[in-house]
Amino acid sequence: MKTKNIFKIAAVASFLMVATSCVDNNDYSLPDVTVQEPSITVTNTLQSIKDTYPGSGVVDFSTVNNGGEMVFEGYVVSSDESGNIYKTISIQDKAENPTAAIQIAIDDVDTYTFYEVGRKVYVKLLGLGMHNNNGVLEIGKINGASVDRISSTDYKNFIIRSAEVATIVPKKVASITQVNDSHINMLIELEGMQSQEKNQTYANLNNTFSVNRIFKSCADNATIIMRNSGFADFKAQSIPNKRGTITAVLSKYRSDYQLFIRDTNDVNFTEDRCDPLFEEDFQSAVDNTTLDIDGWINYAEAGSAVWTEQVFKGNGYAEFNPYKSGDASNIGWLITPGINLDTQDGEVLTFQTEHAYPDAGHNPLEVLISTDFDGTEAGVTKATWTPLTFKVSYIEDYSTWFTFTDSGEIDLSGYNGTAYIAFKYTGSDTANQNMTLHVENVKVAVK
C-alpha cells in the first residue's frame, strides 16, 4: 500500500514538472485557469465607445445601437491595492501600444483582488452611461441625466473577466509636453524625472488629505502633478532624492494632468538628481534697490551706476541702466558666486536677457568666465576673463522691448576648478549708449 502511494506521488510530481516546463514565462499573456473564458461577442472598440461622447452632457448607452447590447474589451492598468486609487478602474484597449483608454466608476474597494493589473475584461454597456468627470471620460451607472458609480452588488455583471492576464507594457511618452488627452487613463512612462523639491513624503503625515507633488523633467524642466492620497499605505514614505522613471496612470483634473501611481514600485529613481550646480532667478529681489544678493559681486569699474534689483508684476530680475548717471563711461560688473566645475562633466550655462531703449550700434553686454578670480572686488580687473558666446535680446530682436530671450546652452565643459561668471555692461550716459538691460534666470547645470 505504501509502495503504491509512493508511485502515485512520483507520477503526479513528474506530470507537474513536465507541465511546468511547457510554460514560457516570457509569454505575452497567460490564461488564468481559475477563470473560465466567457462566451461574449465584442461589438465595439474602446475608441468607438469614446467617440459616441458628443463633448458635453451624458451618453446613455441604452439609446445607442437601437438599444442593443454594446461590448468592448480591454486590459486593467490601475490598482487600488495601495489605497492611492479610489473606486475607479482604468482600462486600455491593448496591453502594449494602446490607442484608447477609459475610466469606470465603481462603488467598491479592493477591486484589485478581482480585476488585477493585466486582467483582460469585457465591458457590457447596456444600462451604463458616460460623462466627462472634470476632464476624464468616465463610464458608470446611468441615473437619469447623471452617471453614478456602479453599485458594489452590480459591477461584476457589467465588467466580465477573461481568462487572459497580460503583461502591461507602459506607453512611453517622450516628454511631459507631449502628454495629451489621448493618454488619459493609460499606463504611461516618463523618463528623466525627479521631484521638484527634495525631502518630501508622498503625502502628508498628519492628515488624510490628498496632495499634489510636483515632478519635473530633467530634459526641459517641464512639470507635472503627481496626485497622492492621504489614505495610500505609502503616504509616509519619502520620495527618493534621485531621478529616474515614473510609471503611472494618467488622469486629469480640469486643465491639469495628473499622475496616479499604483504603489512606490512605479517610481524607479536610481540616478543622481539633475539639480543645477548654480541657479539664481532673482525672485528675492527688492524693487529698485542696489543688487545685494549673498555671494554676488556688484562692482562699478567706471562711473557711478551699478546693477540693481527690480521687480515687475511679481517677477524679479537684475538691471543695469546708466541713464541719468551723467557718466561719460559706465562699466558695471555683476559676478556670480564661485561654482565648482570639478565634480561632474558636461556643464552648461543658460540665462535670459531683455532690453529697452536700444542705441544703434551699442552692444553693451559681455558674459565672461574666470577660474583664477579671487572672489573680491579688488581682484576683478586682475583676473583672467574669457568671453563666452551667447544669444542676447537686443541682437536677436532689436525692436522688441521687454521680451526675455534665451541665451542658448553655453558649453562650460572645458573649464575646471572654481569658476565665476561675470555679466559686464559697458556704456555711457553722455554718449547715448545707455540701453536698459535685464538679466534673469542664471543657471549652470549638467546637460
What does this structure look like?
This protein is mostly beta strands. The chain has three domains: 27-166, OB fold (Dihydrolipoamide Acetyltransferase, E2P), CATH 2.40.50; 171-271, Nucleic acid-binding proteins (OB fold (Dihydrolipoamide Acetyltransferase, E2P), Beta Barrel), CATH 2.40.50; 278-446, Jelly Rolls, CATH 2.60.120. It contains three helices and 31 strands. It has helices spanning 2-21, 46-50, 393-396; strands at 29-31, 58-60, 71-76, 88-92, 101-105, 119-124, 128-133, 136-143, 146-148, 159-166, 171-172, 187-195, 211-217, 223-228, 243-253, 256-260, 267-271, 278-280, 289-290, 297-302, 308-312, 315-320, 330-335, 339-340, 347-356, 365-370, 386-387, 405-406, 410-411, 418-427, 436-446. The strands form four sheets. Strands 1, 2, 3, 4, 5, 6, 7, 8, 9 and 10 form a ten-stranded mixed beta sheet that branches. It is elongated.
Give a summary of the structure in a few sentences:
The chain has 447 residues and is mainly β. It contains 3 helices and 31 strands.
What value does the Rg take, in angstroms?
A: 31 Å
* Shape annotation: elongated
Mean pLDDT: 93
Q: Return the domain count.
A: 3
CATH class of the largest domain: Mainly Beta
| Count of runs of 4 or more consecutive helical residues | 3
How helix-rich are the residues, as a percent range? under 10%
Query: Which class do the helix and strand fractions yield?
Result: mainly beta
CATH topology assignment of the largest domain: Jelly Rolls
